[in-house]
Amino acid sequence: DADVSVDQQLPRAHTCFFSINLPRYSCDNVMAERLKYAMYNCIEMDADFRLADTETTGWGNAEVV
C-alpha cells in the first residue's frame, strides 16, 4: 500500500467485528467513491470463499419459499 496513492486505496471491512478501516482520503468525494466501488465490486468476505460464476447461475430466478 505504500507505493499506492492514498486516494487509490480501498477501505477494509471486518464484518465479524462490525468495523471498517478508512485511509485518510484527500476529500469526502474520494471517500464516497471508494466506498461505493468497494461495496459494488467486493467478491469476497474476509477471504473466506469466492463463488464461481457457475455456483451463482440461476439465483436470480430462484423461487421464494
TrEMBL record:
The active site is at 16 (glycyl thioester intermediate). It comes from Tribonema minus. The keyword rRNA processing does not apply. The keyword Repeat does not apply. Residues 1-52 form the HECT domain. Coiled coil: none annotated. Keywords: Ubl conjugation pathway. GO terms for molecular function: ubiquitin-protein transferase activity. Gene3D superfamilies: Hect, E3 ligase catalytic domain. This is HECT domain-containing protein.
